[in-house]
Specification:
Layout (H helix, E strand, L loop, with lengths): L4 H10 L1 E4 L5 H16 L17 H4 L3 E2 L6 H7 L2 H11 L4 E8 L8 E4 L2 H4 L6 E7 L10 E3 L12 E2 L9 E2 L9 E2 L7 E5 L4 E3 L11 E7 L5 E2 L6 E3 L4 E2 L2 E2 L5 E8 L2 E9 L9
Parallel strand pairs: 13-16
Antiparallel strand pairs: 1-10, 2-3, 3-12, 3-14, 4-11, 5-10, 5-12, 6-9, 6-11, 7-8, 14-15, 17-18
The structure holds 2-oxoglutaric acid (AKG).
């Protein structure tokens, strides 16, 4: 079984779970070769920074890819893979819709991505989004594995603040109270991390000199959702047929940390900025 009862319980409690060895080594090798070859061909629709092999910034040499399933058959087949569908359907109790693919290359020396919540960007309603994050390389703290704040999936979407762009390639982050545990998710290539749309997560820079930290990522939304941010439309049913949901409104309330009886608590008093970055 792809998702065990213990993993399902962890997803409910902590907001994430890892399905170990969901993809075989030969499949992983094929994905790595495919995306490295694609990246070598130049820029593609959705690249947030152009490909620049001469740049000193590793992320300009290997920018992430977005929405590849709209023009790449292998990415589409992966997004709709029956194993991912089985895990997601078990975790969500209903088949999801598929909304996005992304490929992070994260070469040696690359910056990470500051802590954030995917729901800030996808704005799924009702319900939430869920990510399937497939490790294409073994990953740990040295090469910038994903880091999560267990239990933060119960938090509302938080208001963002400026991120440290010397460590993060994105410029906004969410604040967390001092002492809040942030847990590295150590994975082997072929493992898939599933995480809830409100889970606070991100990654630190790749500090190695010789190890990529590639990840193939799918974003899904709960199958009873009626709205999603327009950037993700049209979404797909897991049989590949398109379904166009209403566009969710920009802006809205977001959470700010306050102190209640000496303890951190979240008050919904802020205003989420409209517009800005379109993708998590
Ligand atoms: O892989 C990373 O470093 C960040 C990925 C991420 O934040 C996401 O998939 O939402």
């Amino acid at each position: 079984m792809a998702i065990t009862a213990a993993e399902q319980a962890q997803f409910a409690r902590d907001g994430y779970a890892v399905a170990r060895s969901l993809f075989a080594p030969a499949e992983i090798a094929a994905y790595r070769a495919h995306y490295m070859a694609l990246r070598g061909q130049g820029a593609f629709p959705g690249d947030l920074v152009g490909v620049d092999p001469a740049s000193n910034d590793p992320l300009k040499q290997y920018p992430r890819m977005i929405h590849m399933h709209r023009w790449d058959e292998l990415s589409l087949r992966w997004l709709l893979d029956a194993r991912l569908n089985a895990c997601l359907t078990r975790l969500l109790s209903k088949e999801p819709y598929a909304a996005q693919t992304m490929l992070y290359f994260k070469p040696p020396g690359a910056r990470g991505q500051a802590l954030h919540q995917d729901q800030y960007y996808l704005r799924v309603s009702p319900g939430t989004c869920v990510a399937a994050w497939l490790a294409l390389d073994d990953c740990d703290e040295a090469n910038g594995c994903l880091q999560v704040v267990p239990g933060s999936h119960t938090w509302p979407v938080l208001c963002t603040e400026a991120a440290d762009t010397t460590r993060s390639f994105t410029d906004v982050t969410v604040p967390i109270p001092p002492g809040t545990p942030v847990r590295p998710v150590i994975m082997r290539a072929g493992d898939v991390l599933f995480f809830h749309g409100s889970l606070v997560h991100g990654s630190e820079p790749n500090l190695t000199t010789d190890r990529f930290r590639r990840a193939l990522i799918g974003h899904y939304i709960q199958g009873d959702a009626q709205q999603v941010a327009r950037f993700y439309s049209p979404t797909l049913r897991m049989d590949g047929t398109p379904i166009t949901l209403a566009g969710s409104p920009d802006g809205g309330a977001c959470g700010v940390w306050v102190e209640v009886d000496g303890q951190p608590a979240i008050a919904l008093s802020g205003t989420r900025a409209a517009g800005g970055r379109v993708s998590e």
